Amino acid sequence: MAGRVSAVDRALASAAVRAGAPGRIRFTRRQLYYEVCRGLLPLHRLPRRLRFTLPAPVGYDRFVAALDRHGPVPGLLDDPAGRTAVPGDDVPDLYDYGLPRLLVCQDAAIAGMLLANDLHMESACPVFAERDLPLDPRLTDALRRTGDAAVFVLHDASAAGYATVEAVREWAGELRVHPLGLRPVHAAALHLTTGPRATAVDLDAPAGLEPWEVRRLRAGHTVEVAAVNPARLLRTVHRLVRGQSRTRRRSARLRQLQAAGFMTWPAA
Question: Coil, strand or helix: which one is 101?
């Protein structure tokens, strides 16, 4: 590269290494962008008891320009195109068995990232994007055969994220639906970088959220799942979809928190 190397270029080179660590994790362009933001403004290292989110220290267009200058990045995934592939189309009797869990992601790129890193194999959990709804009826039949199957929803800390939860509930019918988050409280504890602010909405308060979380959602504040470090995201989602399905008895408060996406992201 000719000329002086900018701070964004240097941050991108370091972020590309961190995003794929450990073990050559594959990641999306948005995840790499937020890793660059963490490198430029590393306040995520402050204690979690100080709850706040961070403004983006660099615009997305500047990041894309730096990425073009950098050239190919090992582990960087292409943007997804079309519907998520349905597992088992080449195995005719797969749908004759029960299916204990299934994950729907608001962001198709995040769904692709989880699949590219074999989360569906490690967690025994098919992964789809919201845009894939309605899913193949054979999948819903397989979920119903299990008797205690769960549909998990991975969504942004935004009004649109909770709209995704409602869309999944409408599709799932009588099946159990568990939002995993993000919630605003998760984003604040992890000191994540905020995404583009959406238009303010008159949002019905999701059960279990704190009043300040609802105010932020209604005001259009957004924190994307992509802002979570890729390794942390894989670790957290695997733990939640496997551990959650083993929980049977829950208090009324726990059920209420669960409805809002109560999972302990900061502890992951």
Answer: strand
How does pLDDT run across 78-96, given as a tens digit for each residue? 988 777 765 555 545 556 6
Residue by residue, DSSP assigns 173-204 as: TTSEEEEEE--HHHHHHHTPBP-PPPPP--PP
One-letter amino acid of 156: D
- Between CA 156 and CA 225 the distance in angstroms is 5
User: DSSP secondary-structure letter at 136?
Assistant: P
CB-facing half-sphere around the CA of 27: CA atoms within 13 A: 31
Mean pLDDT confidence for 88-108: 76
Task: Give the C-alpha separation, 223 to 196, whole Å.
Answer: 8
**Cα pseudo-dihedral 188, 189, 193, 196, rounded to 10:** -30
Query: pTM of the full predicted structure?
Result: 0.86
What's the token pair of residue 137? 């009826």
Nearest residue to 210 via CA among 178, 182, 183: 183
Length reported for the chain: 268
225 contacts 156 by C-beta, under 8 angstroms = yes
Give per-residue burial for 161-176: e unless 16+ CB within 10 Å, then b. Answer: bbebbebbbebbeebb
Mean pLDDT of the 101-126 span: 95
How many Å is the maximal CA-CA distance in the chain?
63
Average pLDDT of the segment spanning 47-59: 89
pLDDT for 178-207, tens place per residue? 999 899 999 999 999 999 889 999 888 888
Contact 76, 27 (CB under 8 A): yes
Beta strands in 52-198 (DSSP E): 101-105, 127-129, 150-154, 176-181
